[in-house]
Every structure is written in C-alpha cells, then in structure tokens.
Amino acid sequence: SPSTNPTAAPTPANPNLILATTTSTQDSGLLDILIPLFQEKTGYVVQTVAVGTGAALKMGEEGNADVLLVHAPASEKTLMENGFGKDRFLVMHNDFVIVGPADDPAGIKGTADVVEAFNKLASSGQTFISRGDDSGTDKMEKSLWVKTGVDPSGQAWYLESGQGMGATLTLASEKSAYTLTDRATFLANQANLQLSILFEGVPALLNVYHVITVNPDKWPLVNYEGAMAFANFMTSAETQVVIGQFGMDKYGQPLFFPDADKTDADLGLN
Amino acid sequence: MDLIKTIFSDPEVWQITILSLKLSGLGTLISLLIGLPLGTLLALGKFPGRSFFMSIVNAGMGLPPVVVGLMIALLLWRSGPLGSLRLIYTPSAIVIAQTVISAPVVTGLTAAALQQLNPRLRMQLMGLGANTIQVVGWLWWEARLSLLAALMAGFGSVISEVGASMMVGGNIRYQTRVLTTAIVLETGKGQFDFAIALSVWLLLLTFIINMTLTWIQQRGVRS
Amino acid sequence: MDLIKTIFSDPEVWQITILSLKLSGLGTLISLLIGLPLGTLLALGKFPGRSFFMSIVNAGMGLPPVVVGLMIALLLWRSGPLGSLRLIYTPSAIVIAQTVISAPVVTGLTAAALQQLNPRLRMQLMGLGANTIQVVGWLWWEARLSLLAALMAGFGSVISEVGASMMVGGNIRYQTRVLTTAIVLETGKGQFDFAIALSVWLLLLTFIINMTLTWIQQRGVRS
Amino acid sequence: MSTVLEIRDLQIRRGKNIMVEVDHLVVEQGEVLAIIGPNGAGKSSLLLAVALLLKPARGSILFNGFKITNNSDTQYRRHLGLVLQEPLLLDTSVFENVAAGLRFRHTPRPEIQLRTETWLKRLGIEHLRQRPARKLSGGEAQRVSLARAFALQPDLLLLDEPFSALDAPTRLRLLDDLHDILSETDTTTLFITHDLKEASNLGDSMAVILNGKLHQCGTPDEIYSNPKDDDVRAFLGLAAN
Amino acid sequence: MSTVLEIRDLQIRRGKNIMVEVDHLVVEQGEVLAIIGPNGAGKSSLLLAVALLLKPARGSILFNGFKITNNSDTQYRRHLGLVLQEPLLLDTSVFENVAAGLRFRHTPRPEIQLRTETWLKRLGIEHLRQRPARKLSGGEAQRVSLARAFALQPDLLLLDEPFSALDAPTRLRLLDDLHDILSETDTTTLFITHDLKEASNLGDSMAVILNGKLHQCGTPDEIYSNPKDDDVRAFLGLAAN
Ligand SMILES: Nc1ncnc2c1ncn2[C@@H]1O[C@H](COP(=O)(O)OP(=O)(O)OP(=O)(O)O)[C@@H](O)[C@H]1O
Ligand SMILES: Nc1ncnc2c1ncn2[C@@H]1O[C@H](COP(=O)(O)OP(=O)(O)OP(=O)(O)O)[C@@H](O)[C@H]1O
Ligand SMILES: [Mg+2]
Ligand SMILES: [Mg+2]
Q1: Where in the sequence is the domain holding B64, given as residue range(s)?
Q2: Is B173 part of the contact surface with chain A (CB cutoff 8 Å)?
Q3: Of the residues B27, D31, D45, D196, which has the maximum number of CB atoms within 10 A of its CB?
Q4: Which residue of chain E is at minimal alpha-carbon distance from D194?
Q5: Mean pLDDT highest for which of B49-53, C35-39, C113-117?
Q6: Which CATH number do you get for residue B99?
Q7: Whole-complex ipTM
Q8: Residues of chain A with pLDDT under 50
Q9: Alpha carbon of E226 to those of E200, E232, E241: distances in Å?
C-alpha cells in the first residue's frame, strides 16, 4: 500500500467532506473503522452525519452533503432520476430478517416465502412493530406489505415506533412483538433482547447499500472530488476486504458482504 | 400556507397536540406538587445536609433527558425491577420521565426565590399567628414573580424535552407520539417542511401558555 | 467497576468530556452575557411592548432543542442563508444552538429575580449617586441567590441538551461528539452499559459544577 | 391581679455573643410596661424572644403560668398582637393586611369586617382601605401595622416603637386613645419607645435595658426618683448625684 | 447668600391623583429647612422629587440656578446626601454601606477610609464596622443610613425623618452636633420631621405641608406667631383664635 504513511498523506484542495448516512450504518460501528482509513489515505477530513434515511437523501437533494451512504434503492433511484445524484456505486449488502418471540406464536418459522410469512403475521393478530420512519428498513417492510395485499396501517396489532432500529428492537422485545430488522443491528443488540430470528435467507430480503455522489451541477458548493475519492475508496479492493471481514471477530460472522464487483441486477434489484 | 392547512386538517396532528399538552400539563403539575413543597423546605427548613441536598437539586436542573430516559427505561423494562408494572411505552412512563426532569428545576428555583425574601417577613407572619401553612402560603404569594418564572421554566423543560419521551414512550403512533418526538421523526424522514410546521405549532402553543403565565406574573409586579 | 476503568483509560472519553465542558461553558457564558443585561433591561426598563417581550422570553424557556437544532441547521446548511459561513457540523454551531436554548432561561429568570427586589432599593442607590451601571451592579448583588439559580438552570439546559447538538453538530467523532450525543449513540448501538457509564460520568460532572455554584450561592443566604 | 408574663433567667444570643440577659421580669394582667434603652441594647430582641420568634439560648418564658415551648408556639402567638419595628406589610390591600391575623385565626367574616373597619377608622386610614400596602407613606404603613395588631384584640400586646413614624397630632391623640383602650380592655402591653415622656405617660411601669442587661424595672416614679445606678441615671438624662 | 434650590410650580402625581403641589419654594445656601406635616401629606414625595427620584408631572426644580433635567440626573445627585425614611441598606458590611456613595464617586481610597471612619465614629457605630448590615438593630441601621449621607459631604442634604429610631440621648447629642456641623460646613439641608420641637430648634425655617399643599413657609417664629390659616394652627396644636 503506497500511501499509508500519515506524514505522506496528500492534502486535497478542499479537504472537508460531508458524508450523510443512516444511523444503522453508524450504529454497526463499520464507519468507525472505515473513515479513519479513508482520512489517512486521502487526507480528507470527513464529517459523518448519521441521520434518518429520508433526511440523508434530503441532504443530498439540497446539497447539504457531498456524498451519501444509504440503503433505500427505490428512493435512491428517484434521486438519481431527478439529477441530484451524479454517480451511484454498489458497495455492499447484508440482509433483513424477521425477528420475534422465540415461541413464534404467529408460526412464521419454516414458511418458504416472505410474503406468506407476512400474511401469517397479519392474520395471527400478533403485534408487529413498524419503524414508520421512511428509513430503508421501513421502505422494505412497506413494499412487502404491498405484496401481501394487506393494509396494516391503523390496525390494532400494527404499531409504528417512529424510531431507529435499535430502539425499535427494544420496543419489540418489550412487547413480545415481531419486527423486520437488518441483521447487523440485530446482532449488535441481541444481548439485550428477548427476540430470535424467525425468518431469514431469501433473496427478497437483501439490504443493499450504495454510495451516491451529489451532483455538483446542481450544487456548486459540493465537494465532488472528495465525494468521488470516497466512492472510489469504498469500492476499492482493499476496502472491500475490510468490509467483508468486519464483525467476524465479534459475532463470528460478517455483518456486510462486499459487492463492488457486482451489479444491481446480480442482487435482484432492477 | 398550504402546509398550515394540512397540519390543522390532519386529525393525527390534533391527537398528538392534545396528548402533548395533557402529558406536559400533568408532568408540570406533578413537578409543582413536588417542587414547591420541597423547595420551600430547602429554603426555610434547618436540617443537617440541607446545603448538600440543595446541590443535588441544583445539579438536577441539568439532568439530561436522554439520561433520564435511559435510567427510567432500565427500571421499567421487563428486565428491570419495576418491569411488572408494565409502564414502559405508555403515556404514564412519559409523565414519570418529565416529572423527573422538571421537578428539580421547580424545586431549585423555588428554593432560591424564597431564600431571596426578607427573613423578617416570616417572623412578622408568625407573629401574626400564622401557622406553618399560612406562613408558607403568604411567602409563596410574596415570591410569586419568581415562582411563576420557576413554573414557566419547569413547563418549558417538559414541553421541549424529547430524549426521555422517545426512550420511555417509544414514540408509538397514536399512543405515545408527542409533538417533539413527531418533530424528530419528521426530521429524520427528511420532511423538513412538515417538521418546521410542527415546530412552529409547538412554539405557538408554548408561547400562548407562557404568555398567559407571563400576563399573570406581570400583573403582580410591584411598581 | 471495570467499565469505570475502561471509561477513564479511554482517551476518547476524555476528549469528549473536555469538548462538552468547553462548549457548554462557552454556551453558558454567552447566554449570561446576553441574558443578564437583557433580563435587567426587561425588569427595570420602561418601554412599550416590555410585557410582550417578556412573554417571548418566557416562552423561549420552552424552546425544544430539536426545534432549535432544526432551525439553526436550516440557516447553517449550505442551502441556507448562512451556509457560506461553513459553520454547520462545527463546535461553533453547537455553541450557537446552546446559546439560543439557554439565553431565554437566563433572561427570564434574571428578569423575575430583579423584579422581585424592593423597588425602593433602586431609588436609594440612585439617591447615593450611583450611575446606571453601579445601580445594576448592586441590584445583581442583592438578587445574587436567584441569579445563581438562573445561571445553574442555564448551564443545566445546555449541558443536558442533545437534540440541537446532534443536529447542528452532527455528532462527528473527534470533532463535535459531546457527552450527550455519545450517550445517544451508545444507546443506539445497544451498548447500554457504556451509555450508562457515560451518563453517570456526565451527572457527576454536572453535580460537581452545580455543587460549586450552590456552595457559592448558599454562602450568600441571609439568615 | 394575676401574672401574665414571667421571664426567668433568659439569655438570647445572636451569633456568638450574648445579646440580652434578663434574670427576672414579671408583667401583671393589664399592666403596660414601657421598655427603654439605647440603640442596640437588645429591646427588639427581647420582644422577639417573648413572641417566640427568637429562640433563647437559655431560660424560660411563662405565659399565664405556663411555660411556652416551641410545640405550642402558634397557639401561644395567637394570644399576641405584635408590631415590629419596621412595618412589614404583606403585598396586598390595606384591608387585607389588617384582616390577615384574624383570617389566620379563622374568625368569622362579619367579625373580621367589623373589627378591621373599626381599627382602620380609629387609626385614620379608612380611606386607604383598598390601597395596595406597598403604596403607602411611612406613617400610613405604621398605622396599618398598628391596626393589624389591635384588630386581634390580643391578650398580650407587643409594640416595638409603634409611634415613631406618626405625625405629632396623631401621636398625641393615639396615645390618649390607647391609654383608655388598654385600661378599658385590660390588655397587658409591652412597648418599646425612645420617647421617655411617652414611656412614663403610657407605661404603668418601665424597664431600662442597657447593653443587653435589664438594669431596672419599676414604676416611672420609682425609676426617676431612685435610679439604680449611674448608667440608668445617664440614660435618663439625670445629673449624676 | 445665594439660592441653592428653587422649586417652581411643582406638581407630583402618584397614580392618578395629584399628590403634591408646591407653587414656589426657595432654599438659600446654608439654610436648614424643616418640612413638617401630617402622615401622607406628601413630604417624602416632595423630597424624592427634589432628588429626581420621582418624576414630577409639571414644574421645575432649579439647583444653583440651573434647571435639573433627567439628562444630568446622576451628576446632580452626586451633589446630594439622601436619607430615606426607611434605611435601605445594601447587603454588605456597615463599612461598605457608608463607603458606597463615595465609591460611586470614585473618591480616592484613603479619603474614603478617612471619611467613613470619621462618620462611623461620630454616629457611634464604629464597633459595627465589619457587621453585615442585615444584622443591625433598627437604630443602628438608621445611623448607618445617616453616616452614609454625611460621609458624602453633600452640597444639599435631604433627610427624611432621620432621627426617628434613635434613642433619646443620641438624638439629643446628634441634634446638637448636627447644628454645629451644618453651620460649620454651610450645608444646605431639607429635613422632614414629626418632632415639632426638633423642627423649630434645628430649622432656620419651616415648611408646613398639609394634604399635598405647601401651606406656609417661614422662620419658626413667624409660623408659630402668625400661622397662615386654621389648618396650620391645628396642625401645630395651637388654639384657634
Ligand atoms: N407608590 C405610591 N403610589 C401611589 N401613592 C403613593 C405611593 N407612595 C405614597 N403614596 C401616597 O402619596 C401620599 C404622599 O405620600 P408621602 O410618602 O409623600 O407622605 P409623607 O408626607 O412622607 O407621609 P409620612 O409622614 O407618613 O411619611 C400619601 O397619601 C400616600 O398614600
Ligand atoms: N440578625 C442579627 N444577628 C446578629 N446580631 C444582631 C442581629 N440583629 C441585631 N443584632 C444585634 O443585637 C443587638 C440587639 O439588637 P436589637 O435589635 O434587640 O436592639 P434594640 O434595643 O432594639 O435597638 P434599637 O433601639 O436600635 O432598635 C444589637 O447590638 C444588634 O447589633
Ligand atoms: Mg429595636
Ligand atoms: Mg414620609
């Protein structure tokens, strides 16, 4: 590696870079590893702002961030189509799982298909906690309900927490309820929870992360060089290795799977 | 403009508003019921450790809502000692947390206000045959300007607080979502316009309430 | 126990602690520099709209940190009118937000404290030949108990606040992460033990600072 | 005639120092005792101690033969009418100030009305009835303070320089009035004054306090004709013999 | 002899009512004017207006020939020594209370020390030097208030019932002292008193204020021998003729 020596770090013309990302990425601890590496390598000073997915996208849309790391493919598409994002790179994925009380009163364990699992949840009347915050997770959940044909909103068994994943998991645990979560956050919180993974491992439940650079044509103040440097860093072979190994020591399994060499289509996204 | 219309025609906004006012009102009331007597005791009583206790109360004015939220959640979670009460994620839990936050404010400011009074006034009242309650009643009256300020500060700390309500209330839609937690949610969603509209609405409510209290307060100014 | 050791041996905790104290101290100081004169003016001045302005200030005691955070972010974001100052996600932004939160508290409580004084005292001071500054200085001295309580309430609102620091500071590691935002982060990560340890540490700091102020305050009690 | 107030071996400290010492002092039913002495002698402190508003370091105070303790303080104080040296009025109307003590005793409303009005009139402040007490002249405030005590029809009146701010004609009239009222109602009274003439005119007896010590107690005649020591003589302005 | 203070067509309101009206009043250099009148007549209000602490509704006050306005108020007040009816002491030591006015004027330290000590001694409170002012007896507090005004060596002394709480011997001594000091230093003085004897002894002239109006002004002899109307006569306790 040619430029790991900090004294030799290059100094970019505009070193300040604002990265808007979602709380779940920050809460997993991955960024605590990656950001220092990036700063050391490139000389940029990153201001990582962890907010809700919606807010992160909005920050991109209004030019208040230079680069985004998000996981809401549908909304990302809109952002790109409206010209607010310039480039979009596939970085990594993990997956969503359905968690709930270990005795699984709704009986979703062993169902073959996620839509069936959701149908069972709806018909069982067991409490389900939705994040209801327009986050990537929330959007995934909503899209699944659409596929079931059930409109859960306003139902007595359907609670909207309006909070981040960690808090929502705690809420679900306290209420002995089901919820949809990304695997990383669940693993990080597992010790405090009385919840088990009851449904997992289908392609429909992939949680895909992209890096998006904000379009400097729309917002001239945006640090596009920095954004590209970050995108390149995230998709570089070295970084991809780091991502693939993150979490192995603590959980015995990786929290994210590197995807820079793949395309959206490979992951079943259209 | 459109947004304002949207807000007021949205029944959910009204439900959240009413819940916010109910919970904050209750929290302030309980803080008052605790803080007024306790502050009075600290100001007028003579007992060992008074000054130390006063420090605790004053330090309590800086209780971070998130810390309060976390502590109370630890108590109320199923795994906690009071888990069997099943209070977590209920409006009651919010009221408890808000009381913990604002009671020290009311207590500390009450104590300071009463200590500021001329100590001979208390003698004069006792000399007129007032019993303890009557003495305290009149001293409250004499310190009413500062006590109303204490009330406003207490109410302010409760209506504006979000960390604790979020944590122990859970921000559950239709159940424990209040104005501040709704604002946080909308902000997180990137719905800045809606968040601002809710903020303005919350500020307006606070302003109306504190304007009423200020009006009461300022009628009592000595000139 | 182990956790306490971990905390104190972690240089990052120290960095966060020192930043928190620096920013909160600065925020409180600026609030004092604004609130003390402004509260004095509101209490002693006679001008049209005084009472209305007083309402605004008192309502300001209930400014929700999240709202303040959102408003200031809207100003300081690149898309906002002050975006070119490049203050967003800097410690300065946090100080600005904290000042906006605590200045009304200090102002409102200062005004109430001074209005509570015997108005003839002011006459007596003027009669002794005191100019305005000298009059005000002595009135502050006479109201010192309540003013110190105001200071503590102001500091308390600043050190405990999280919503605004999060929003305008961004909770950026080594740059704008303060104790309260760190607690939120650790809570979000499910690291409750660490979050609690940080909470206790924050409470301890607040307690020590307000105990010192209480000690100063209580030396001045008339008996 | 019975003893209303008896003070035994009283010692009052303020701060570290012994401020007042009274070995023995007896006040009989209906007696008017004038307390005189220089500034800082301890007159007000003695009065406060009698009203149980200062805790004595030592000694006892007997009221109608019973030793008063902190337990019975409010009950005891409801037998008193107290006028302090500065008229500390409550921040309400003049009427409510005068009525305050009666309200504390849960006196029936019409009775409160009657007594308050009577004393407002007697002290020439009935036109100030609705005035906020903070908007009074010095003399008016003192009158309110006096009315407030008299309206209680107390068994024991404690007055601390109650006429110092009154104008000359009022003072003369009130002294006359008071003499009649007190003997009519047989009210035991302790009053502090700096006016030696007032003391000997109104007082059945006089107590001379110098430097925290009760030097002499007796009828005005006794004291003037036979002052106990040079200090008393000097204070009364009598030539040394 | 020059005119120090001249009041023209003065009208003071408190609330809605006209409280004091003085058509014309002149005080010459070195003159000691005693202001007398019943409670609530408006004496204190007049004094406050002269000190520019109450804004008159109408009229003007001239000091050494210059009309005083709100713009020059602090400068003007630094010529004054003011003792209000209640001794409003600052919550600090007795010494600092007496020194306060001098400190406001940035008087040099040694001078402050000297003058303060002088007046503490003259008023017999030098032993209270370090005492917190809130721990004083009524008379002691009044002495501090007096020392505070005298230490300023003012051109114009304004005293509102300054001796009401002093004990008899001190009062007599101080009145004697004061007479000498005032004529020695040629200090123009307005003082309010309820003691008619005091007024005619200390005052070169007297002003009788009744019900908010200046009824008569002149030397004590003039007023006593030739009271202007029945009201003045009645107030002075003279038989109607
Ligand atoms: N703050 C006030 N607001 C309205 N009226 C007042 C105020 N203070 C005093 N007054 C009234 O003004 C009148 C004059 O008061 P002032 O204090 O000048 O009387 P005074 O002659 O000094 O009487 P005293 O001998 O009792 O001191 C009185 O009737 C009094 O009730
Ligand atoms: N709060 C206090 N703490 C300590 N000492 C005090 C306090 N109040 C008064 N003293 C002192 O106690 C002594 C007695 O005071 P007291 O008020 O009884 O005097 P007094 O005889 O009423 O005098 P005066 O005629 O001036 O009213 C004085 O020397 C005074 O300085
Ligand atoms: Mg006294
Ligand atoms: Mg007066």
Answers
A1: 2-222
A2: yes
A3: B27
A4: E167
A5: C35-39
A6: 1.10.3720.10
A7: 0.90
A8: 1-6
A9: 14, 10, 11
